[in-house]
Design a protein that fits this description.
The complex is a heterodimer of chains A (21) and B (180). In chain A, 19% of the residues lie in helices and 0% in strands. Chain A is built from one helix and no strands. The longest helix of chain B is centred in the middle third of the chain and has 18 residues. The chains are: A mainly alpha (21), B mainly alpha (180). The complex binds potassium ion. The site of potassium ion has 2 residues of chain A, from loops.
Chain lengths: 21, 180
Amino acid sequence: NPIVLDLAYNMIEFPAIENRM
Amino acid sequence: PLEDLFTTLNRHIQASAFDNVVKFTDQILAIAPDDEDALRCKVVALIKNDRVEDALSAIKSSRKQLDDFHFFKARQFPLLFCFAIEKLAAVQKPLNCRMLDGNGKKRAYCLYRQNKLDEALESLKRQERNDETMLLECQILYRLGKMDACIEIYQKLQNSKIDNMEINSVAALVMAGRSS
Ligand SMILES: [K+]
C-alpha cells in the first residue's frame, strides 16, 4: 500500500511569544 | 517572573526541546493558569512529541477557564480551545471564523492521530477551509478509504506550496486504482 505522509503535522506551529519575553 | 520563563520557553521551542517546552509551560501555568500562550505552546509541544492523548487532555482541561463568555468578547484573536469555541459558536456566530482558525484544527489532528476518523472529520467541518484543513481532510479521507473525495481535495490543493504533497496525491491515485 502506498504510504501517505503526515503532512498535516508540519502545519501545527508554536504561537509567537516574542512579545511575552 | 513570567518574562524570564517565556524567554527560556522560547529557547526550548527554537531548539525543538519539546519535553522542556512542556516543563516550562507547566511552570508558567502554575503561576498563571489562564495564560493562553502557555496553553497553546503546551498543546503544540505535546503533539510534536507524539503525546496525542495528553494534548487532547490539555485542550479539554482548558475548557473551564475559557468558559467565560466575556473573556472571548474581550479578545478577538484566534483561540486554541475548541470545546470552549464550540460552546461559543452556538452563542455568538460572528466571532467564529477567526477563533476557529487556531484550535479545532489541533483537536481534529489529535483525533486523526488516534484514528477517530469520523470525529476528526466532524471537528474539521467546523473549521474555515484552507490549505491546512484541506490537507488534514485528505489524510483522514485516505485512511477512511474514501479515495475519490480524497483525490478531489488534493486536486484543489495542487497550486499550494505544501512540500511533498505530490507524494500523497499519487498515493491516493494509486489506491483508487487510477494511474497518475
Ligand atoms: K497518514
